[in-house]
Amino acid sequence: NQLASRKFRSFLSNSGRSMASKTQVGFIGLGNMGKPMAKNLLKHGYPVIATDVFPESCKELQELGAQIVDNPAEVADQADRVVTMLPSSPNVIEVYTGPNGILKKVKKGSLLIDSSTIDPAVSKEMAVAAEKMGAVFMDAPVSGGVGAASSGKLTFMVGGVEEEFTAAQELLTCMGANVVYCGAVGTGQAAKICNNMLLAIGMIGTSETMNLGIRLGLDPKLLAKILNMSSGRCWSSDTYNPVPGVMEGVPSGNNYQGGFGTQLMAKDLGLAQTTATNTKTPVPLGSLAHQIYRMMCARGYSGKDFSSVFQFLQGA
Amino acid sequence: NQLASRKFRSFLSNSGRSMASKTQVGFIGLGNMGKPMAKNLLKHGYPVIATDVFPESCKELQELGAQIVDNPAEVADQADRVVTMLPSSPNVIEVYTGPNGILKKVKKGSLLIDSSTIDPAVSKEMAVAAEKMGAVFMDAPVSGGVGAASSGKLTFMVGGVEEEFTAAQELLTCMGANVVYCGAVGTGQAAKICNNMLLAIGMIGTSETMNLGIRLGLDPKLLAKILNMSSGRCWSSDTYNPVPGVMEGVPSGNNYQGGFGTQLMAKDLGLAQTTATNTKTPVPLGSLAHQIYRMMCARGYSGKDFSSVFQFLQGA
Amino acid sequence: NQLASRKFRSFLSNSGRSMASKTQVGFIGLGNMGKPMAKNLLKHGYPVIATDVFPESCKELQELGAQIVDNPAEVADQADRVVTMLPSSPNVIEVYTGPNGILKKVKKGSLLIDSSTIDPAVSKEMAVAAEKMGAVFMDAPVSGGVGAASSGKLTFMVGGVEEEFTAAQELLTCMGANVVYCGAVGTGQAAKICNNMLLAIGMIGTSETMNLGIRLGLDPKLLAKILNMSSGRCWSSDTYNPVPGVMEGVPSGNNYQGGFGTQLMAKDLGLAQTTATNTKTPVPLGSLAHQIYRMMCARGYSGKDFSSVFQFLQGA
Amino acid sequence: NQLASRKFRSFLSNSGRSMASKTQVGFIGLGNMGKPMAKNLLKHGYPVIATDVFPESCKELQELGAQIVDNPAEVADQADRVVTMLPSSPNVIEVYTGPNGILKKVKKGSLLIDSSTIDPAVSKEMAVAAEKMGAVFMDAPVSGGVGAASSGKLTFMVGGVEEEFTAAQELLTCMGANVVYCGAVGTGQAAKICNNMLLAIGMIGTSETMNLGIRLGLDPKLLAKILNMSSGRCWSSDTYNPVPGVMEGVPSGNNYQGGFGTQLMAKDLGLAQTTATNTKTPVPLGSLAHQIYRMMCARGYSGKDFSSVFQFLQGA
Fold first, then answer.
1. In terms of CB atoms within 10 Å, which end of chain A has fewer, N or C?
2. Please, are residues C141 and C188 in contact by the beta-carbon 8 Å criterion?
3. What is the pLDDT of residues A141-156, one digit of tens each?
4. Which of D192, D225, D267, D280 is catalytic?
5. Which residue of A has its CA nearest to D301?
6. Which of D138, D167, D184 is where one domain is finished?
7. Per-residue pLDDT reduced to its tens digit, B268-312
8. Rounded distance, CA D49 to CA D61, Å?
9. Which ipTM score applies to this complex?
10. Are residues A242 and A161 in the same domain?
């Protein structure tokens, strides 16, 4: 039956994969995030076989010793562990189930780890499709930006069959400092989306509050200090304060350059909105946060760090 | 000139008041918060002279040794330091400037400390009115509820002339664990209002996020843990989580009894809204938070802790 | 080439279909709306061949002379014009592209009209799938409820190839009073979704405004009259006023029974939200309207008319 | 008793005033709106005695025959009917109750009509203060802009004692096409504020909807036509459409010049917010509309017509 076959396959794949753990690892999607992640796999001694739609993205990795192939199917043909890092749901669908997709040539027992941030419903579809081919799919989106990707300090939130978590962890710990098991397939995405929705709410809320306090005559550093010792405290007030001059080493001190772009936050809030709509969950502040980041994109803030909402609200 | 007279008065009052620091202290407003605060002054050895519109509120304090008089003017006639703790702006206006108000009989050089949570514009008006009578007015609203008032663990946010802060601190430390100087008159209120606005935003945001995550299949305790180690972290997620079963010792574990009532939060958000409107400051999330707490009051949640917004959004 | 073949097919189908216009018409989806729509086709002399997942829904139509078959494929096998009226996007996908779906047996040149209210992106997918089989797909969602469906007074908003509009109109005029051509496939849905989003905003806005005015001492009938002669005028204020006693013959006069259910409005606002998210369009009020109807569903208002938002906001 | 004295005074004032109806009328506040209103009184043969804080504002009226005096008290000293048209609540308080205010020299039985748009609570305070001096205060805010003021086509919404309405009407019909009695003092303001709140909601809603529809492929003129024949219809869609090219003779066709400024709408929404806060009325969309207009002011839209929210949301 299905359970037996799953356990058997799990046994096979686990033993197979763990016996030769430094065999090739596939990597698909060599963008701003994917490239440093793949490099960290190389650094840890894994032979990497990679592909990307932009050939130029592959060069740097090739020079570091990675093997470059034409398409995802070729990657899956040669590696029984594959990591994907792609911009959005349609890319993931294409890379897994398209004409040259992973599932066209995936080996039985392969472990497929998707670190893209996408709709958890799509993750579930991919898991079903992978299972039909005898492969295991896990979602493992990250928190932390390009810096954390380079230094191997990402946090991975992992959804999927629990008995495969150890196998995934082996690879993910090469690229991240924290690897958290969240539950069934899709819950990694859910955790990521939930965190970022609350982050956006906290950031806009902190920006409104700081702006109001300043207009009421409070010194911004003092206000931040008071909030941070009180019940208004949040990550955006105590770690990533959006008001220029309150903290050092954050984008607000650098004209909102670097950091996590407004457009990316708008994308994640779009995912939160979609999952909330699909599950009929009321998210009034999350929804308004989404709209505010959309308005910012419409007003020229796409490329600035998402803490620039302070500037957007303050006027100038 | 005015500066000289202010300094002279300041000199007089400081020396006069500090020389005999355990002279009578006036206390006006013996409600849920005021009564335990006044008791703490008594415990610290201050003779208290008090009044309240409800005679029955005075009894308990009288039995503990306080002197009870008829009205605020009588209090001010006998004590040169007066603390007020009242429900809202109109009460403060009445108690200070009404026919039997403090300012009718206030002594020159008196220190008047208002711990009510009110519109900072009213605090400024009271300060101007007090100054005309040669008295000093400071706003010193508190954070912390009835429990903190009883145990003397309140936080005071103090606005007013800086050279009087030490004198205020002497009394406030009898009633609170933290006494923070915020700046000119009204900035104590501003800090309080700002904190509570961000608190409300964080609480509703946390409730939406937890509700969404649960519907997406995440275990609530695990989700809280993930948020608290990530950028979604806030006081409402890590200290006062609104989801029953996630934490112990918070109102969500006790059917949202006790804590900080929805109606009180709605009141504070109304103050935040009013100050934002008057200063033309956009506060989109703060404004929506206000509306949500108003809707909750309209749907029967007035008396429940403000974390019951989780229940309101979740449906049942 | 494709254009030539399209024109040729169009020529064939038009002549073929119009020559024998009272040949069988297929109808799939015999719910609250679909059943009276199908009856109106029968009344106008069209032989109807129908199916529904619930056999009991078919009985009444069978007694009126309709032929009942097992599944959508059978309908398409016998009729070259098919109307579908289904609850949501997944149903439409199943009925068109599922194992027993229309496209399994559709005849070349058939005209497929979908009157469901769904995501316009799904309409476009169905149109592409239909075109591959040589058939023409049009979206034609309706406005007007069960009453309008029974009396043949629906409004159809039609999207699709313009040269097929006349053929669609022939059938739709049997079921509706207005048939409006909106543009390419999906624009019928777009028009429907846009209208309902603005409707929801107007209804909540009218409810807030009436509630505020009443609390400020205005007579509700007088306030409605003033709004309706001023720039606050909208359909919800002048045709469907949500305040009991202001108008006759509307759900507010009948404890919000009948009319357009809150749950259905929440569904349409979900579609609006999804299309807005997908097109990165900021819709702050539409988004908040969606959230308010979701909160109402969570608080027991699902089955009441959507004008009951007045009651929800007013408290009771 | 009070009722008798009120009736007696009413009798006196009515007979006194109506017997000599073309005696002097006072006018205070000669801004963009006040000047053309005062001119219309002159045109109808009323001697006008006027004042304004800006002497230059008085010149034009003086040349047309009005008598100019130094301050509101002088106006009230010479005229027993006075109209005021001022920017905001503090101005009204100053003009009525300040050191040179109307009430310093008002005659018993005088009729004081305030056409400013202010907080209805302030109107009530002014009415109480006027009554103490034996005078009658009515609030009569207007709808319609500078154009309507010039052509005498304003709508007046009047609150106050009903038996004085006829006397007020005599003057107001010289300046407006509609004079509507709304109820007790303050209800004129309430009606104005309610209308403008719903207007703002309708305008933003129409802008979001049109923007969404256009992105979904609908022609804007066609979409407007569909909305206007459906339940999405509102004044902003059918009379003042915010999308350039849809209608002629509206600000959207003229780069949002002229019309009703975003800053003025933000002010009126601030009043709506304040009255809603004070009466604990939830106004979620009204509140968000206020925030959106505040954000627009912060982003440089203050001087553009309020329909420019379409441009703000659309991006450019």
1. N
2. yes
3. 998 888 899 999 999 9
4. D192
5. A315
6. D184
7. 999 999 999 999 999 999 999 999 999 999 999 999 999 999 999
8. 10
9. 0.91
10. no
